[in-house]
Structure formats: C-alpha cells, structure tokens
Design a protein that fits this description.
Two copies of one chain form a homodimer. With 229 residues, chain A is α+β, with helices and mostly antiparallel strands. The first copy, chain A, is built from eight helices and eleven strands. In chain A, strand 10 and strand 11 form a beta hairpin. At the A-B interface, helix 4 of A face helix 3 and helix 5 of B. Chain B binds a DNA duplex (30 and 30 nucleotides) through helix 8.
Chain lengths: 229, 229
DNA sequence: CTCTTTTGGTAGCTATGGCTACCGATTATT
DNA sequence: AATAATCGGTAGCCATAGCTACCAAAAGAG
C-alpha cells in the first residue's frame, strides 16, 4: 500500500495532496489493482464502466476501432496515465474506447463516486481531488480538440506539416526524433502508412525535410508553415 | 438581474442550486453581459480567454478555421449554451475555437476562478457548481470523442450512414428532419458539399434511403449498419 | 407578388491517397 | 550469432472524393 501511495503522489490526480492525507484516502477510496499480460485488452469499448483506471506499470494504447477492424490510436499510456476519466462522472457510463496493453501492465481501478462525494468523515481532500479531476478532464478535452484539428485537415501534406511543426516546437530544435513508429503515426493522422511514406518521400525530394527512420530534420520551416492546409 | 437568475436556473451549470442561493451567487460571481449583432465574432480562436461564456439569447456557431479559410462547425449554440469551459480551468488559457453569431445574440461572461475557489463567505454552492462543471466538461469531452469517430471514418458513405443512424436513434423514427443544412452537414462531416450530394444521390439510387430537402427516410437500416466503415 | 439570396442537385475533370504486394533493413529473441 | 518478427520504403493500379461551374428550387425581403 505504501508503494502505491508513493507512486500516486506523483500523478496529476493526486497533486497538491499531502503524504498523510493520501495514505488516509487510500483506505477510503476502495481501490482495486489488476495485472494484464502484453497484447491484451484491459477494457473494451462499449462495456460498462468499471471505474477510473490508472496505469501503474507497463504501457498501453487507448484505441478506437470500427466494425471493419480499422483502428486509430488515441493516446499511448505510460505509467501514471489515466483512462476512463471522461465518462466516469456521467450516468450510465460505458467505455468510449478500448485500452490494450503494449507491455505487460498493472492497473489500478478507482470508483468515481468516491472521488466526488464526501465520505462520512467529510475529508477535506475531496474538494482538491475534484478540482484536480476538473483540470485533467479539461486537458483531455483540449487534446481531443487538437486531434479534431489534425483529422479536419484534408490533405496529407497538411497533416504532416502540422505534426512536424508541433514536434519542432516541443523540442525547440529542427532535428528531432519521432515519438511514434510509422504505423502509429499513420494511425494517428488517420492515413494509410504507404501513402504517408510516399508523401514524406516527396517532401524530402522537394527539400522541405530530411529524415532517416525515426529521426527528422526540418529544412524549410517557413514553407512548411504555409502548407498547413 | 432577476431575469438572468430565472434564465440561468434552467441551465446545466446551475442545476441543483436553489433559487435563493442563485440570487446570492450572482453578486459574488462577477458576471458581465455583452451584446453582439448577427454575423459577428464573439471571440476568436487564439485570443486570451475572457471567461466562460453563456449564450443568453440568439444563436451562435463554434467554429474552427485554418489558415486557408476552410472551416468546420464544432457545435451550434442555442440559448443556455456554454462555451470556453474547456480551457477555463487551465493556466494560460486561450480560446481554442472561434464563436460566431448566426443571429444577434447576448452573451454572459463569467470568470472561472469565481466558480471554483470559495469566496470569503465559503458559500456551500461552490462544491455543487464545481461538480456541475465536471459533468459538463466530461460531456464535452465525450462529444469531441464522437466527433473524432466521425472524422476518423475514411469513406463518405460511412460518415453518412453513421450520421443518419444516429439521427434515427435520436428520433426513434425512420423518417426525420436533418438538423443541419447541406452546407453545414458537409462541414460537420468534413467533406465537400457536392461530393456529399453525389453520395446521397447514389444511396437513394441504391434504395438505401429516400430524401427530399431536409427530410430523410431510412429504407434499409440493416444494410446501412454494415456500411459504417 | 416580384426580386434577391440562399440553398440544393448535377456534371465532368482531376488530384489525392488507399490498397496490395514485395523487398530490404532493423530490431528482438533464443 | 542465427533466426524470426517487426518495421520502413517503393511501385502501380484505381476508387474515392475534391473542385469548379452551372442551374433549379426554395426561402426571405421589399
């Protein structure tokens, strides 16, 4: 239990909460921990919500898949990553996406009611926890907004430029390492991998970028900017 | 002021709050009301956040536009509609989208700090208001999730089927009226209007649907279901 | 009721990008 | 170090859907 508390205190959901408070909370919050092997579903889209999930160790992908089996990656969860926060506070909650282990993982589930509704003891940290939740969900919503921006771009070129320029901003360097494999990037931008490779090759030919495997260098930032759709 | 209180009490943000409490709140919350003529920007994407907005009267569209001027409609706001909730609780907040009046409108702005941080009087409704906020933002996030679902579909046919079937579910009737004009629907699905018309004509030809202007009837639900991408 | 504006349908051309298939390179496994 | 599995690049074909342009119908304004 101490191990879990030490871990949780570093996650955004439990920020601004004192060490002692947190230890008290854990008994009150009614948590459950489960283990999953690599390449297994933790939860499947559509199933009834079993609580907010926190990845304690391993790696998992939040994915959305349609009938035909075509899938898009929403996010990659690292330890500390949260999932299921969005529907947690709504009635009749169901998982809006599936979560699939990339590595063998352990997951902590925590029932949403406990976060929000004060327990009998009227612990003071409920307000803090609710506010943290509010921030986290707001951030998620903005992330989705960003995703919508990418998906709304009609041209492949536009998507790639937007993505590269964002990486450039993050790394503050024209040379950077892509955080996704080709397959994943194609999924993320919702395009087919070969088409993406083709377009990247074209951009290299035109002297806009250079790349070798996961390492990319932007050669003409200005021109790339004008190409965002 | 009484007029505003009577109006607000019916909105989701102020649900579960008593009439008397609400009247007290309004003084405490530091609200501002502004008027906007038809076809004007209320806020523009990228500008610093000026507070959470609530549409009191009129109609406005939340839109996202890229450099090239191509725009997509995120939602249509009716009186009572909220905007700016997503970034409101995050530091360095900026408007993630623009809001544009479709009819002349009046808008109430309300500073987010006031919702969350208890005032000196430690009013009991702060907790309720925060919880309402949590629900609203969760819903928004799920809506965006839905939007991502639509945009992730690669075929026009798939998008149309998904949209029609959702309308069918909402109206519980195979015949229904489209809530959007062709232009708007095309924007929403992120496709071009002529291409959409063409596809709808094809679907009519194939006996899947029938339509005249904004009235649509689904003729083969099962087959439509199999076509969602 | 007429005139204007908005909205919706259609046609034809063309670019974009999806898909399959294949091969070489890189990385993981033992 | 050898083998297997994953990953990335390329080619060619072709369906999908974007775009412009134009016309007809409906809705609004005077």
């Amino acid at each position: 239990m101490h191990f879990i508390a030490d871990f949780l205190i570093k996650t955004p959901l439990f920020s601004n909460i004192g060490q002692t408070d947190l230890t008290n909370m854990l008994g009150c919050l009614d948590i459950k921990v489960k283990e999953y092997p690599k390449s297994h579903y933790i939860v499947s889209a559509g199933e009834p919500l079993s609580g907010i999930g926190i990845l304690l160790s391993g790696e998992a992908a939040v994915i959305k898949e349609n009938a035909a089996g075509s899938r898009i990656i929403m996010t990659i969860l690292q330890p500390g990553g949260l999932f299921g926060e969005m529907p947690a506070f709504l009635p009749e909650a169901h998982w809006p996406a599936s979560v699939y282990t990339q590595k063998s993982s352990s997951v902590l589930f925590l029932p949403p009611e406990k976060i929000v509704s004060g327990c009998q003891k009227l612990c003071p940290w409920h307000q803090t926890l609710t506010l943290n939740m509010l921030k986290i969900i707001s951030e998620k919503a903005l992330q989705l907004n960003k995703k919508v921006e990418y998906l709304s771009m009609k041209s492949m070129r536009g998507k790639l430029c937007a993505f590269f320029l964002e990486q450039y901003q993050k790394n503050a360097n024209t040379t950077f390492t892509l955080p996704l494999k080709r397959n994943e990037l194609a999924d993320f931008l919702n395009v087919s991998r070969p088409s993406m490779s083709r377009e990247m090759a074209r951009m290299k030919e035109e002297g806009l970028i250079d790349f070798y495997l996961s390492s990319v260098r932007l050669l003409n930032i200005e021109k790339l900017r004008t190409m965002i759709d």
